[in-house]
Amino acid sequence: MTKILVSDKLSKEGLEILEASGFPVVMKPGMSEDELCKEIADYDALIIRSGTTVTKKVLDAAKKLKLIGRAGVGVDNVDIPYASEKGVLVMNTPDANTVSAAEHTVAMIMALARNIPFAHSSMHEGKWDRSKFTGVELNGKTLGVIGTGRVGGEVIKRLKAFNMTVIGYDPYIPQDVADRMGIRLTTLDEVLTASDFISIHTPLLPSTRGMIGLEQFKMMKPTARLANVARGGIVDEEALYTALKEKIIAGAAFDVWCSEPLNDAEKKLLELDNLVTTPHLGASTTEAQERVAVDIAHSAVKYLRDGIITNAINAPRGKLSPETAPYVPLAEGLGAFLYHANGDRPAEEMEVIYHGGLASMDVKLLTVSAVKGFIKGIIGKEGANLVNAMPVAKARGMEVKESKTEECDEYSNLIEIKIRSGDKISCVRGTVFGEAPRLVGYDGYAFNISLSGHLVFLKYPDTTGVIGKLGTAFGNEGVSIMTMAVSVKEGNNQAMMVLEADKPITPALIDIAAKACNGKAKYVNLCE
Q1: In DSSP terms, which residues pair with 143 in a beta bridge?
Q2: Percent of the chain with pLDDT over 70
Q3: Which of 31, 135, 465, 520 sits 20 to 30 Å CA-CA off 152?
Q4: pTM of the entire structure?
């Protein structure tokens, strides 16, 4: 029975969806890492927010885990590379708290511009210091946005209404998208040097960790104000303290921190009179809390019940179309075939070649499916999936290549896979008739047989009488031959026969078959 563990507080609307699925749901928020390791062994799915950190230790303890669902955007609290290696899908809810985070960003910027928190505190102390809290207008100022994706785009939309000029830095956004937002894309350096207000909206990645340090602060205007409602760690907090303390910039508004709650070293930032702070409230609205819970609950149930993947962080990119979907079992079957045919030799390279109409289609998921089929023989059928196929292949030293050609002599679409092990290359070719995967070639021999069941390949001198001998040998062992195909190469006296049997083939029968045809025999079990 599939079981779901919820280790952070989740809105009742999300919990109701999980419970209505029929899967057992256990709610245990606030566990330590050790407590989570003890609890998680028997669960198939883990639903978290920002309070739970999914470490390598936790993943090793999760013997059955298939899914980690993050109710929110940031997934820096999950060891994604190791989750991928373990075959655990990681999902998030990238859209659910977009508006809340954008509105909080605007609120923080306005509070900073008009000194609202400091004036509020002064008033509550019984003071009336109007001149002390003189602010600045947003009107006519330049806003620099670092990261112009979902949240950044919503912030831009709102602050353009304040008559701000907006420039942005985002190496991943196309120019036409920037044009539609009405912003000018530029370099990070120009955003830092030219902006009056700077707002950060990038994920926390190795490439963005510490991207704003003392050097970057010194590039900013002394009147600049910086807002971060994205992730802690993007800004070097020691450098932030120095920049605010020494008035290198005018002020900052921060909702996110490296340590949450703040550690003792970070608490010195709270002594500054030009820093507006909140305790990670970007997504803390009633509406956002409900949306993230509902979205992750729906996504988790779809995956656990139907295998449908939505908003996955570590699933392979690409999409299936009605034209490519029938080729998924073909690609996986060809990969599995090559694993068995390759024997115990380690594979150093796999090349997947798409012929005909497939050459013009998105075939990334087909390539991953081929790798999945191959690694099933290495880590087991239950352990291999689309999430861990490429990481497992890479960890075992197998390079995966993909190529395309519109040339296809006999079929409208064909997949060819080559495996290189040392100086030996094995090659298999297949296509789809109707919905059925067909094996149409192996190591230069052409035939047409179902890519399924118990297959025996025999390579032998092309002489008469072999079919009768093999029929007798299989019959003596109580094995029926369902289908048979024979192929010869021009200028080669070696023939290849493919037999589909009705039951598993024993090693003893393989030896008998090889002797009967005075050749070599190989068994490929595609029922596993």
Answers
A1: 166, 197
A2: 99
A3: 135
A4: 0.64
